[in-house]
Each structure stands twice: as C-alpha cells, then as structure tokens.
Specification:
By secondary structure, the chain is α/β, with parallel strands linked by helices. Helix content is 46%, strand content 12%. It is built from 13 helices and eight strands.
C-alpha cells in the first residue's frame, strides 16, 4: 500500500474504538521488526522518526527504507510521521521528503528545550497546519510540556511541571486546526519515568478524561508511553547492564486512555530496551561471535515481540484490512473542501 496519512489511520481507529502504536525508528532492523509485527498481528502502523533519527540515518536512507516497507507490505496501511518537529522548517523538510504526517511540537521553542508561550505555540503550529493540509499531510500538535529528554529534545524535569490545562487544550485545538493533540499528563520520555509504580499522584488520567469530555472527537496522543517492563530491565542487568530501578506507564492506564479518546500511543524506550537486552545476551553468552547478524537478528526478534504485544494491547491488531488507502492528494482535497474539517467539536463544561 502507498504510505497513508496518519489522519486516515486515526479516523479509522476512532471508528473502531482502538489505539495505534507509533514506534520510533533509526535503522533498517527496527523498521523490519515493526513490519514483521504488523504482518503477524495484521495491524495498521505508524512509524516515526525524530530529528535525531533523521540525522543519524540520513534522511534519504530512512525514507527509502520506509518506502521499501510499504512496497513489501501492500496489505498494511503505514503512516510515516515526523516525531517532535521543533520548527516549521523541520516539518516542511519532512513533508517535502514524503512524510505523511508531522508533529509540530510548539510546546517548546525551536531549541527543543525551553518551554514556549501559548501564543508562540499556536502561531507556529497554525503555520505548519496550513502548509501540511494544503499537501494532504496530517499534523499533530502538543499542548502542555512532557518531562524528560529524548534524542536531545525535551524540557527535562518530571513531567508534572507543565501539565495540560483542559481549557487551553480546547482553545489550542480551535485555533490551530490540528488533526491530533498530544497532551501532558505526567509522562516523560525515556526509561526513568517514575520512581514507584505510578498512581493518581504522578499519572494524571483525570486530566486526560477531562480533555476528552471537552473535545470528544479530537484524536488524543500519549507520548512517553513505554511501560518499561521489569523483564526487559532484568535481561539488560543480568548481562552486565546497570539500569536503576524504574517504572513506566502501565498498559492498563493506556487502555483507559484509549477508552477516552487516545488514538496514538508513542513507544520508543521499550524497543530500545528489548534490542539492548538481546544484544547484551549474545555478547555475554558467546563472546567469540563477531558477525553483526549474530546479534542483530535476535535484537530484531526481541523488538518484534514487544511491538506485536503492544499492537494487540492497543487494539489495532486485526484492523490492517479494514480500509483502502486514501491518497495524499485526495486528503488535500478533503481539507480544502471541508470534508476533513479539523474544527473540533467542543462540549460544554
Ligand atoms: P518512551 O520514551 O516512553 O518510549 O516515549 C517515546 C515517545 O514519546 C516518542 O515521542
């Protein structure tokens, strides 16, 4: 199937009442792991690349790999998404390369570190929306600021410092016309999210539910949603790693989110942990090996296992064949004629 817009994937997910995992990639093996999991579970997929990933892999290598994935998997809808675009220029370059979706993270200034004002966020996000929709490309915006740092992008901190205000979320959705809205509910990027099993004091599911009540048709996005499973931490530490004890976002909380409007769930860290554990195991158990395939193959398989499990838990499994691709040109027409309006439905308080 040609690459499809993320908007189509999320609209379908809303109809079916499920969520779609958005998995980060930097290289061929990660893309293959995601596609193998999608094939195994018959899932539509969102593949996403951060600025760091685009720089690491070089834009064209990464994009051609995604095109290969689409060609090799004609029955699977795939959206290619820019994760955490820091500026209009970053989003523009992704769109010009052929990405079918971009995130304009205007919650931070272009340095990717300093929190921006609400007005700055609205202005840059609106600019990206105008450019992207004219070309049929989906836009995700962010209101509130996540914790942690990923690939050099992030304000740091605990994730509780700039939680999303539901009234601001409504105003932001109305003024920007984004297709999907990332919100801050206490999660952070990376492995060190929580120092104890998260409960209501650190993971603010009540804020998510309040936003969904006000914006019942808006596709919500949960960032920093790795569950950081203990078994993956243990494998790393068993084979010489030194991870400190940590907790991620429990899958049941994500499922509660999915019942309350969450349609896109970002997962990167769990896959990084799975890959690292598998490689460490080969190095520790068979130190005489030196062919990269001897450790990249188990690494790829370990990631496939995590991705397939998340696809099943998020509910996207079994939905790959539900619909035909709408071309990006037709998406552009839809934005123009209003059939893909992004004017949000706003419910009274
Ligand atoms: P994790 O670090 O929890 O996997 O989050 C990834 C993410 O949100 C990418 O934008």
């Amino acid at each position: 199937m040609p690459l499809v817009s993320m908007r189509q994937l999320l609209d379908e997910a809303a109809k079916g009442g499920y969520g779609v995992g958005a998995f980060n990639v930097n290289d061929m093996e990660q893309i293959q792991a995601i596609m193998a999991a999608a094939k195994e579970t018959k899932s539509p997929v969102i593949v996403q690349a951060s600025r760091g990933a685009r720089a690491f892999a070089e834009d064209l290598y990464l994009f051609k790999l995604i095109q290969a994935a689409a060609e090799l998997n004609p029955d699977i809808p795939i959206a290619m998404h820019q994760d955490h675009g820091n500026s209009f220029e970053t989003c523009k370059s992704a769109i010009e390369l052929g990405y079918t979706s971009v995130m304009m993270d205007g919650s931070l200034k272009a340095d990717g570190k300093t929190p921006a004002t609400f007005e700055e966020n609205v202005e840059v996000t609106r600019k990206v929306v105008d450019f992207a929709h004219e070309r049929g490309v989906t836009v995700e915006g962010e209101i509130g600021v996540l914790g942690g740092v990923e690939d050099g992008h992030g304000a740091g901190g605990s994730g509780l410092e700039h939680l999303t205000d539901p009234d601001q979320a409504v105003e932001f959705a109305e003024r920007t016309g984004v297709d999907a809205l990332a919100i801050a509910i206490g999660t952070s990027h990376g492995a060190y999210k929580f120092t104890k099993k998260p409960d209501g004091s650190v993971l603010k599911m009540d804020i998510l539910i309040a936003i969904h009540k006000r914006l019942p048709k808006t596709h919500l996005v949960m960032h920093g949603s790795s569950s950081v499973p203990k078994d993956l931490q243990d494998i790393i530490n068993q084979y010489g790693g030194k991870l400190k004890e940590t907790w991620g976002v429990p899958v049941e909380e994500i499922q509660l989110g999915i019942r309350n409007g969450v349609r896109k769930i970002n997962v990167d860290t769990d896959n990084r942990l799975a890959i690292t554990g598998a490689i460490r195991k080969v190095f520790a158990e068979t130190p005489e090996k030196f062919d990269p395939r001897d450790y990249m193959k188990p690494a790829r398989e370990a990631m496939q296992k995590v991705v397939a499990q998340r696809m099943t838990q998020f509910g996207q499994a079994g939905h790959a064949g539900d619909y035909k691709a709408i071309s990006i040109a037709d998406m552009a027409k839809g934005y123009k004629d209003g059939s893909l309006s992004t004017k949000p439905l706003v419910a009274a308080k």
